[in-house]
Amino acid sequence: MMRVLRDLGWTRDQGEGMARIFGSMRQVELHEPELEEIAGTFIVRLSTRSAYDEQTRAWIAAYGPFGLRPQERRYLVALRQADGTLSVDRLARQLDESFGQAKAALTSLEARGLVWHPPRSRSYHLVEPLNVPHERVYRLLEDSRISVDGSTVLDREQIARMARTVDQRSTSAVIDQWKQAGILVPAGGERFKLGPSFLAYVGQRSNDGSSS
Question: What band does 46 get if pLDDT is binned at 50, 70 and 90?
Fold first, then answer.
């Protein structure tokens, strides 16, 4: 029957159906289909059960403000399950994607401060939800060529340039956000030092990078 349908041009008969079903279920983060053959009958059970357990779903929810798509969440979950670090090659194999697809996805995630990788390394590191603001500010400091240590002091003008704010009000809003995240602490007047939690993150990041 399939050969006839293929000859008529109504189907391609290339065994794509199951792969498409499994791919579609993964795309919407549902549990993989269950396959069963009983007395000549082939059964495919499609579940509405999430592919992730309750703890993982709660962890994913913490990334809510960053607007992750299901495909991107798969990368973060894979990194988390590997203790936070995997190479592009291993991620591609684990997620059944090409090297190019994996590299493009990781590059996009890195641009948003959700993962990072050391120079000349193919391994990417996960940024936990609470550390995403720290990673983003770290990048801004690096791009501005400002040293990152306990002696660093920033004024409003430097912060405005780093954050590319357009007026004093938006600069104040950025400063408030960074203070609440523990990135900045007052240093007197309109000056700010880097907070202990931010410096701790940078220290851990440096250790992780040197061991990659």
Answer: confident
